[in-house]
Design a protein that fits this description.
Largest sheet: 14 strands, antiparallel
Organism: Rhizobium croatiense
Protein name: Cell envelope integrity EipB family protein
InterPro entries: EipB-like
Structural class: mainly beta
Number of strands: 14
Keywords: Signal
Number of helices: 3
Signal peptide: 1-20
Length: 278
Amino acid sequence: MFRSSLAALLLASVSANAWAGAPAASAAAATGLIAHRAVYDLELKDASDRSGIAGMYGRMVYEFDGSYCQGFTTNFRFVTQIDTGDSVRVSDQQTKTFENLKDGKFTFDTKSFTDDQLDKEVNGAAQDQPDGVKVDLKQPASRELQLAESRFPTEHMLDVIQNAKDGKRFFEARVFDGSDDGDKALATTTIVGKQQTPVAEEADAGNAGAFSKTAFWPVTIAYFNENAKSDSLPVYRMSFKLYENGITRDLTMDYGDFVLTGKLAKLELLERKAEVCK
């Protein structure tokens, strides 16, 4: 499903650990992220016969708040109505994450519902360590895992923005965001296009409010199973237009058998209190 890294993605230098040991740089970059709530209208762009999907639409709400000192919180809800031709069902994914960049900590909690019935819950915590990432998983089963060194979602978003500003068009990173069963990281490749300015033909550009005429980067992130062969297809691919402050719009979410688009319908900026890190 959609990953919190828009959320993330929504959001690395050349390697996944390029910023390790550089908290000052991370702090400076993190102050540029803006607290906001974004609402996206979702529509089915394409679906293969194998998908079994005749129609699909929905709405996504993404709320990002916090600071480098206090940590960043993401609340994310992804609701779709799916028509298979024989029946219609409503899928509802609700995710909350907290990421402390200073201490290298990340917590996640995702509940997935079908027609208001809870199908699955995944929650736990992850901690950066010298030899990788330790995951303390609570749901769907209690266990501890040791994963290879990985970026957390806000770290990865900061990496994407920094690479875009530096003119680095392609880079790879391993990312852990607690998605799926919360028990693995995914390898990612990111492609960043040249910075552009919105044009009148872009349907959702005007809904970006104060940023409607602000320059953005076109970004595509592909997610692969960690041990996938070099010529393997991604398990998921997402394209979007990214502003320097972390806001995204004009989403395309490619799940392989079907593709969704997400147009920014509403953007609300959230008030953030000034603070001094101690």
